[in-house]
Amino acid sequence: MARPKSPHPTELELEILKILWQRWPLAVREVREALAEAGRDLAHTSVITTLNVMVRKKYLRRSMQGNACRFAPRISRQQASQRMLGDVVERVFDGSAKAVVLSLFDCAELNPSELKELRRLIDEKAKEHKNGPQ
Q: In terms of DSSP H, where are the helices of 1-134?
């Protein structure tokens, strides 16, 4: 039975996006080499198939450069992370940002400088909320 379609990138698609967010456009061979360097040695045809699926899903754009197809991201890291995190917030935490943050504090070690930066960001958000839209 086929896996249900997800509005989010699969693990492999996310790995490919991470490669392409760092440098683009890349040919299939270059994507395959980068995946192999990361410990994911796939057949050339598997990489081509995945890249084409990602084009259909509108995660990537394809262009021809000479005889080679080159691929570049159509979505930014921020767009992908916001979509995925938003889905987790809704499905797992019933839309509660507070529950997400508390869960992060429980599962991640934060050093004092990270805690200080988080406090600054929270204070900044509170100030924005208090002052309303500009």
A: 11-22, 28-37, 44-56, 77-93, 97-107, 112-131
